[in-house]
Amino acid sequence: MGFDSYHPAVLLAFFTGAIVLCVIVQQPLFQAAGFASAALCLICLRGREGWKTVAAMLAVLAVLACLNPLFNTGGETVLFRYFGGRPYTLQALAYGASTGCMFATVMLWFACYNRMVTSDKLTYLFGGIAPAVTLTLTMVLRLVPSYQRKVQQIVQARSCIGKSSARGGLRQRAEGGALTLSALTTWALEGAVTTADSMRSRGYGAARRTSFAKHRFGARDAVAAAVLAVCAAVAIACLLGGGAAAQYIPVIAIPPLSPLGWAGFAAFLCFMLLPSAIQVKGDLTWRFLRSRI
Amino acid sequence: MALLAVEDLTFSYPGASQPTLRDVSLRVGAGEYLCLCGPSGCGKTTLLRHFKGVLAPHGERTGRVLFDGASLDALPLDRQSARIGFVMQDPDAQIVTDTVWHELAFGLESLGCPSDTMRLRVAEMASYFGMQEWFRRSVHTLSGGQKQLLNLASIMVMQPDVLVLDEPTAQLDPIAARNFLATVHRVNRELGCTVVIAEHRLEEVYACADTVAVMEAGRITVQGDPRSVAAALYAAGDAMTLALPAPVRIFQGVEGAGEGRLAPAPPALPAGACPLTVREGRAWLARRIEAMPPAQTGLAAPPLAECPRDDAALQASDLWFRYGRDLPDVLRGVDLRIPRGELCALVGGNGTGKSTLLRCLCGAARAYRGSVRVLGRKLGDRRERDLFRECMALLPQDPQNIFVKESVRADLLEMLADGPLPPEAREEAIGEVARKCAVEGVLDRHPYDLSAGELQRAALAKVLLTRPRILLLDEPTKGLDSFCKRALAEVLRGLCDEGAAILMASHDVEFCARYAQRVSMLFDGSIAATDSPRRFFGGNGFYTTAANRMSRGLLEGAITDEDVIGLCRS
User: What average pLDDT score do residues A4-22 get?
Assistant: First the structure.
């Protein structure tokens, strides 16, 4: 129903485009639109959980903004001085907010990406080009949770024989942690030998690999890809043409948007909102269908 | 013609002083079910790995392995991968990918199977194994039994002619193991797939097998159909008789010379008469009792003495526990008393909260209502340091988890590291505990190189170094063969004689019936019953031992093989 049901290539193109565009724009209006779209997309996907992540990212944004003037003393308007005269400037604060916004937006897009582009879609896309790399990736995806669980098991088992890792001084705890890690490593290596045997015994490397997953590149995928391509082209043209210029240091200089700027902004917004729009449309269709039943 | 044949195979690992396999010859016909048994370390795994070229160990080899009439070495990799399937012991490490469907498809993807064929094959196997429900799940959400079934299914999609299984149930609980072995039997019966299985749960596989081969020290000593192998083992007085299914053991105990006796077996015993299953056993036992009525037909089962409140080493009253605020209760008002010097068993189905209860009893999980008294003092009043020193210890289900060093000795030393013993006395303490647990021979080995039985005993040794007066064991017999179980039981009995209280959570009905003094059943979060094994298992219809199922209605209160044999001979 939603955007995640589109062809993996479209999904990957969208996320690559969204992240690249959000990293390069510095114009506050564009940045705010980028953040809002990413937040909307995540909320569409995850509901209440999504709100929590958005709130956390807003906090990250605020912290980064406030911290930046401590490291960057450029800028003309001094808000206050500390440590015997070190300036804390408005411009550095604004620049920090911009960087923080960029960072938070990218994090939100990654959260959406994790939800939509699952490992099998990635395997499907790159399985033909780089089979070894993609297989390694899916194996890593399996190993991470299994390592987490093993660590938990070791810690739990040891706490029941009086070797709790949450006890004693810092040194004891560090020692306990190192022991757990070394046990985990041994276990992992042992397991890797079995996994390799299991792969070889099932013909890994015996022939050219094929893929189980099947995704059809249909008409709606083509339409979505075309919309994304046009919007991205307009937005990039606008950025290259200086339609979304912004400067923070030494003085804040954000010129009002030119007609080119407005065109670029419209394209940018259109690009960023595409997944949410598809999601909302899907929800509406669903509601409409249900109301007729 | 044999589908798979080994001719005069002798194999030694590089640097080994003597060969692991000596002059092994074996023939497996198409569609046959062959069970390979023998004590651990006798070379079963080494032999099985020779059946699959890519897994064959490196070393010095003479003799031949033939598949379908031609040398296995000549079979190209892709054909070998598809035609010979191999299932290993570890359910987790065999899985390559992160989702169930991808794991099922992995083999076919590797062989370059076209997408449409692959989808059909995966679909039919997923349906055959009943996996539709968890087809899209991530593998780390599966239970051990489900993982092993997935491993089997992901080999069956390649439509192999031979399925080789190397102790596939060693890491599963008995219920999952039974389910897995039943599936293997079904694959053999319904799909005609040849099965070669190394297994120590003979109760489950012995009656299914067409051929049984017994290995000892790298040689195949006996080979043939299950009944004649059983007769031959008893005639030779072999220790493997200990591992045979209860009906066989009872039959031989009653009709034959009995194990351990040096007198030769009466030669007149017809091999065909030996029952293999409980059903055959009942029929035989009924005939036998009718023909020769025993003097005594029942064993008295006196009621269990109530454990007095102040004598209990460990006492739980009204324990309630849940894992999260919004999650359901796992324990709902557990009352339990463990007396000093007794071995108590906690039985119950999967997921009834046995492990959770053990963790609550040692304070690793906090009950939200109720109290635990350890040696007369409340659990909450004790400091953690004191609790796990000379007081209490919990041995987890996977004993490997408590080993973190490079050798067993170093791991044992770790337990004494911050103790009061002077360094020179530590070696002595380790020597003593190693002797008690029969692990002196493996002290310098890496914990991960030990067999399941050795590992369990080494873990017990490690735990005993804290000198616990209350010992909690979680599934101590998981993956152990009958010899290891007997050795473990002796260690536990010794501890009880010294006054320790032991509570073991176990699925192993036979072990509990034979060695425990008190059995409690956990059901729906609380203790449904506590009784002596004879009253508990004697009264159950399903949750009981094979010997009891066989003698129910014929003999009263007989729960072990020895009980039935003794009554029949009276």
Answer: 94
Do A81 and A150 belong to one domain? no
CB A267 within 8 A of CB A257: no
Q: Looking at the structure, do residues A239 and A283 belong to the same domain, yes or no?
A: yes
| Closest chain A residue by Cα to residue B402 | A158
Residue B553 has pLDDT above 90, yes or no: no
Q: How many domains is chain A built from? A: 2
Min Cα–Cα distance to chain B from A125, Å: 15
Tokens of A97: 């907010």
Domain containing A177 equals 124-201
Residue B163: which of B195, B128, B129, B125 has the closest Cα? B195
Residues of A (133-172) whose Cβ lies below 8 Å from B: 135, 138-139, 141-142, 145-146, 149, 153-154, 156-164, 167
Q: Chain B: nearest CA to A187, how far in angstroms?
A: 8
* A129: closest CA of chain B, how far (Å): 15
Among chain B residues, CA nearest to A195:
B94
Coil, strand or helix: which one is A131? Answer: helix
Q: Chain A closest CA to B555's CA: distance in Å?
A: 43
Residues of B in contact with A191 (CB under 8 A): 90, 92-93
- Clarify whether residues A76 and A190 are in a common domain: no
Model pLDDT for residues B273-307, shown as the tens digit of each residue = 789 999 999 999 998 888 888 888 888 888 888 77
**The two domains B2-226 and B311-391+468-531 share their CATH topology (first three levels equal):** yes
In the predicted structure, residue A166 carries a pLDDT above the cut 70: no
Q: Verify that A181 and A229 share a domain, yes or no.
A: no
Fold annotation for B311-391+468-531: Rossmann fold (3.40.50)
| B404 lies within 8 A of chain A by CB | yes
Side chain identity at B205, as an amino acid letter? V
3-state secondary structure of B126: helix
Interface of A with B in 165-224 (CB under 8 A): 167, 179-180, 182-183, 186-187, 190-192, 194-195, 197-212, 214
Predicted confidence band of residue A135 (pLDDT cuts 50, 70, 90): confident
Same domain as A256, residue A195 = no
Same domain, A77 and A138: no
Edge-to-edge strand list for the sheet holding B84-87: B84-87, B162-166, B194-198, B33-37, B211-216, B219-224
Residue B309 has pLDDT above 90, yes or no: no
Residue B65 DSSP code: E
Mean per-residue pLDDT, A46-65: 92
Residue pair A164/A158 in contact by the 8 Å Cβ criterion: yes
Domain-wise residue ranges, chain B? 2-226, 311-391+468-531
Residues of A in contact with B77 (CB under 8 A): 203, 205-206
Subunit contact B110:A207, Cβ cutoff 8 A:
yes
CA distance B80 to B161: 10
Same domain, A98 and A112: yes
Check CB contact under 8 Å for A139 and B112: no
Average pLDDT over residues B387-409: 87
| Among B94, B364, B385, beta carbon nearest to A194 | B94
Q: Which residue has the higher pLDDT, A290 or A232?
A: A232
Task: Pick the range with the lowest mean pLDDT from A171-185, B119-133, B177-191.
Answer: A171-185
Assigned domain for A218 exists: no
**Residue type for position B369:** R
Segment among A162-171, A179-188, A190-199 with least mean pLDDT: A162-171
**Structure tokens of A205?**
């490397």
CB neighbour list of residue A107: distance below 8 Å, 6 or more residues apart: A57, A60
User: Are both A77 and A182 inside the same structural domain?
Assistant: no
> Which residues in chain A have Cβ-Cβ distances shorter than 8 Å to B462?
161
Task: Dig out the tokens for A208 from the structure.
Answer: 């050219």
C-beta atoms of B55 and A202 within 8 A: no
Predicted TM-score of the model (pTM): 0.80
Taking contacts as CB-CB distances below 8 angstroms, the residues of chain B near A199 are 96, 106, 110
For the domain spanning B2-226, the CATH number is 3.40.50.300
Predicted interface score ipTM higher than 0.85: no
**Is residue A244 assigned to a domain?**
yes
Q: Which of A171-175, A186-190, B486-490 has the lowest mean pLDDT?
A: A171-175
B111-120 average pLDDT score? 90
